Amino acid sequence: MKPNGEKEADSNAEVVESGAKTGISKAETLSGYCVLAPEHPWHGPYHDLEYGFPTSDDRVLFERLTLEIAQAGLSWLTVLKKRAAFRAAFDQFAIDRVAAYGEDERQRLLADPGIIRNRLKIDAIIENARRLQIIRSESGSFAQWLTDAQWLAEGQWLTEGQHTPHKQRIDRRVGNSGVGSRRLRERSEWVTLFRRHFRFVGGEIVGEFLMSVGLLPGAHCSQCPVFERIKAASPPWLAAQRHREAVCAVDQDAQTK
After folding, report:
1. How many CB atoms lie within 10 A of CB 34?
2. Which helix (H) or strand (E) holds 153?
3. Residue 95 · residue 136 · CB < 8 Å
4. 27 in helix, strand or coil?
5. Per the residue annotation, which of 17, 51, 63, 68 is the catalytic one?
C-alpha cells in the first residue's frame, strides 16, 4: 500500500515495498528484494547498479544519506520516483550550496511538490550539509571520515566505556594511528556516532545508508548475481573481512611454528 492508501499497480512492487511499510529494512527482506527488484523499472537500476557498491564521491554519499532520511515512514519506491526532483531541488547535492541555504531556499523546498515536503526532514538535510562542511574541513572528505570511523582503536572503545563483543576479533597489529589494538565498529556504534554528528538519523536510516555504500554487509543475498560484482568492487566491509582473515592466518601460522 502507498502512504495514501492507493494500491500499487505492480504486485511485485507491493512485495518489495512490504518491508518498508512494516518497518522492516531492505536488508531484512533481502531474498525478496534481490528476487523482485531486477527488471523493475524503479527498483531494478538501483538494485543492480548502486545498492551496496562502494563510493568515495561526497555528493553521492550526501544524496544517499538524504534519501534514506526522506524515506522515513514512506516506501522506497516513493523516494526513487522523486529522486530526480530531489537532485534538482538540492542543487545536485552540492554540499556547500545546500549548507548555504537560507529561509528563502527553505520555503522553496517546502513548497516543492516534487519532493517530500516534511519540515523536519528538510531542516535536517540542510543542517546535515553544514555539519558535513565541518567534517570535510577536519577529515578532508565525508568519504575519508567514514573510512576512518570504520575501525575503533582500543583507546576509543575503552574511553567510551564500551566492551569488545566476544564475537569480534581484535586486530592487535595496527590501530587507527599506529601500533595497537583495534576492532570494527559495531552497527549500534555507527548509530551512536551518526547521532552525534547528524540530525534525523535513527538506527534504520544509518544501517540502510551504510549498507547502501558498502560499509556494512547485507545489501544483497549471496545468491544474487549482483553480489559477485559487489565483491569485485571490494567494498569496505569485505576489505575489512579479508584483512581480519589475513591476520588470523598469520596468527595461526605463528602458533604452528
Report:
1. 21
2. strand 151-153
3. yes
4. helix
5. 68
